[in-house]
């Protein structure tokens, strides 16, 4: 049966002015053909695989192509433009929807149907004889209702380029939060930098990494379930008598003897002077680690890990004029956690806004003798993303790469620059493309628990800056000043996009 690689689908953007390839599988025929604008291309099928190379094409929109093999496939709404691979970790992955505090008006006024993003969701399979498949994901246009899904750094850069050049822009987003640079490197490169083979070995059998990640998920779920109690309902609607004062923002810390692994309940009474309106919104800054939040006994929001801002729109009918109660069930995974400073804490009903910083009440709930089970994420395993998110695209054509990574290497920064050089050289050889690269220098950051810079952070920044001299066709854009000290994921991605676009215009146009 004819099956194209999943990136080839309605709405796709292919690289202009290059001999692009369309590839896939068909184990029932010896030849596959493709028709684009009346011109027919053919390719022989070898071992069930085929690759059709198209002639260079000018920038264009609204095209269709048909592919014929054992079955027929029609692809519509095709564009030719400039396509960029977005690699790295969470600051490249961070979606537009997470930047609305500072860029809401810009986003509201944005409608760019010819900026589109394909998400490379890694289909983890590390077995040496297995070829990873691309994910069944759509090309998402930067239009109202969908724009929030796009990489913020990617979109804000692409928007400025499109405004000037009016050329379609494709963003192939491979970035994965928490990924190390080693996960992006081919196995053949790693032996030069240390014993990574022992880290990979447990995952090299078929489905081994997938099974491990399922065990990770089950282990964390079991640990959390052990902290649940049938009588928790009593903590939701009223402040327990034994509750003590707690200042928000603030942390439970080992050095202060206040740490607690498990459940902690936090409470804040607040007064509304006006009649509540349906349009209500709670902003609980940033919490460590997972929260379930209630207002007047009704659930208004829940996030399962520490990094996303707690932005909870809700139905204001649960509010009342006069006194109201916020109850937060906070799960602290490793003993230290709480309410991170330098983030917004307020509630809004219509036009009435109440600040929530200051004195709260707190009571410690169920505790655990052990922290949450420690597991690697798939994107921390050396060579995992190279195998699942880079190599499957080796025949796809790009204008260049935008790279924002380094946070996960800050505790072991040695030779980061050398690894990046080796990685880029290998990618260029594999793709047989020039692949100019824009590197983002990480923002300054202090850990909200220790209030200190992560060891090696400055070293990574210095090595990122040095990449412009060490790596051919490489430019560096700084995000160093774009975040608050305790903000790992700065929202000022539009400013970063402006800086990237200024460099990209010189590199790619």
Report what the structure shows.
The structure is a single chain. With 509 residues, this protein is an alpha+beta fold. It has two domains: 3-209 and 378-508, SGNH hydrolase (Rossmann fold, 3-Layer(aba) Sandwich), CATH 3.40.50.1110; 233-367, Jelly Rolls (Sandwich), CATH 2.60.120.260. It is 22% helix and 32% strand. It contains eleven helices and 27 strands. The chain has helices spanning 90-93, 100-108, 152-165, 187-190, 197-200, 208-225, 233-236, 384-390, 416-431, 457-470, 493-508, and strands spanning 3-4, 13-15, 21-25, 31-36, 39-44, 49-53, 60-68, 72-88, 112-119, 139-142, 169-173, 244-248, 250-252, 262-272, 279-284, 287-288, 290-295, 298-303, 311-315, 322-332, 337-339, 345-349, 352-355, 358-367, 400-404, 437-441, 474-478. Strands 2, 4, 5, 7, 8, 9, 10, 11, 25, 26 and 27 form an eleven-stranded mixed sheet that branches. It has a six-stranded antiparallel sheet with strand order 12-24-14-20-17-18, with no helix packed on it. Helix 3 (152-165) packs across helix 11 (493-508) and helix 9 packs across helix 10. The longest helix has 18 residues, at 208-225. The chain is globular and about 75 Å long. The chain starts with a strand and ends with a helix. 41% of the residues are buried. The model has no long low-confidence stretch (mean pLDDT 96).
Low-confidence stretches: none
Q: The CATH topology of the largest domain is what? A: Rossmann fold
Helix fraction by DSSP (H/I, runs of at least 4): 10-25%
Total strands:
27
CATH architecture of the largest domain: 3-Layer(aba) Sandwich
End-to-end C-alpha gap: 40 Å
Give the rounded overall mean pLDDT: 96
- Number of continuous helical runs: 11
Computed Rg: 25 Å
Instruction: State which percent range the strand residues make up.
Output: 25-35%
Total tally of structural domains? 2
Question: CATH H level of the largest domain: which superfamily?
Answer: SGNH hydrolase
The biggest beta sheet reads:
11 strands, mixed
Q: What would CATH call the class of the largest domain?
A: Alpha Beta
Which word captures the global form? Answer: globular
How would you classify the helix and strand content by structural class? Answer: alpha+beta
């Amino acid at each position: 049966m004819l099956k194209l690689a999943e990136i080839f689908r309605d709405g796709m953007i292919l690289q202009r002015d290059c001999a692009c390839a369309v590839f896939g599988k068909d184990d029932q025929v010896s030849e596959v053909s493709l028709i684009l604008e009346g011109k027919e291309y053919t390719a022989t099928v070898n071992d069930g695989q085929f690759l059709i190379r198209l002639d260079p094409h000018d920038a264009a929109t609204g095209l269709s192509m048909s592919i014929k093999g054992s079955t027929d496939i029609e692809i519509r709404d095709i564009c030719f433009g400039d396509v960029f691979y977005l690699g790295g970790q969470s600051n490249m992955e961070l979606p537009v929807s997470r930047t609305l505090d500072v860029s809401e008006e810009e986003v509201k006024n944005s409608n760019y149907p010819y900026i589109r993003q394909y998400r490379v969701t890694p289909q983890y399979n590390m077995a040496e004889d297995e070829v990873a498949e691309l994910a069944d994901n759509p090309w998402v246009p930067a239009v109202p209702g969908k724009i929030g899904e796009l990489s913020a750094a990617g979109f804000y850069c692409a928007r400025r380029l499109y405004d000037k050049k009016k050329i379609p822009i494709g963003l192939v987003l491979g970035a994965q939060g928490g990924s190390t640079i080693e996960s992006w490197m081919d196995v053949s490169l790693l032996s030069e930098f240390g014993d990574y083979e022992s880290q990979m070995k447990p995952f090299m059998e078929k489905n081994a990494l997938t099974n491990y990640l399922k065990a990770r998920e089950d282990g964390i779920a079991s640990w959390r379930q052990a902290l649940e109690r049938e009588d928790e309902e009593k903590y939701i609607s009223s402040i327990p008598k034994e509750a003590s004062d707690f200042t928000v923002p603030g942390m439970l810390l080992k050095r202060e003897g206040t740490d607690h692994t498990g459940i902690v309940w936090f409470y804040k009474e607040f007064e509304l002077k006006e009649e509540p309106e349906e349009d209500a919104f709670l902003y609980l800054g940033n919490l460590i680690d997972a929260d379930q939040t209630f207002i007047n006994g009704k659930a208004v929001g829940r996030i399962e890990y520490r990094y996303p801002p707690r932005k909870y729109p809700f139905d204001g009918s649960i509010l009342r004029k006069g006194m109201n109660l916020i109850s937060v069930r906070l799960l602290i995974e490793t003993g230290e956690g709480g309410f991170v400073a330098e983030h917004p804490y307020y509630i809004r009903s219509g036009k009435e806004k109440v600040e929530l910083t200051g004195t709260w009440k707190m009571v410690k709930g169920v505790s655990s003798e052990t922290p949450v089970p420690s597991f690697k994420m798939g994107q921390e395993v050396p060579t995992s993303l190279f195998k699942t998110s880079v190599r499957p695209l080796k025949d796809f054509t790009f204008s260049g790469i935008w790279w924002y990574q380094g946070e996960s290497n800050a505790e072991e920064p040695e030779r980061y620059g050398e690894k990046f050089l080796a990685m880029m050289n290998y990618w260029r050889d594999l793709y047989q493309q020039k692949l100019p690269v824009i590197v983002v220098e990480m923002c300054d950051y202090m850990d909200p628990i220790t209030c200190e810079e992560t060891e090696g952070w400055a070293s990574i920044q210095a090595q990122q800056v040095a990449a412009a001299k060490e790596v051919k066709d490489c430019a560096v854009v700084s995000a160093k000043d774009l975040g608050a000290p305790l903000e790992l994921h700065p929202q000022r991605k539009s400013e970063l996009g402006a800086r990237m676009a200024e460099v990209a215009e010189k590199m790619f146009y």
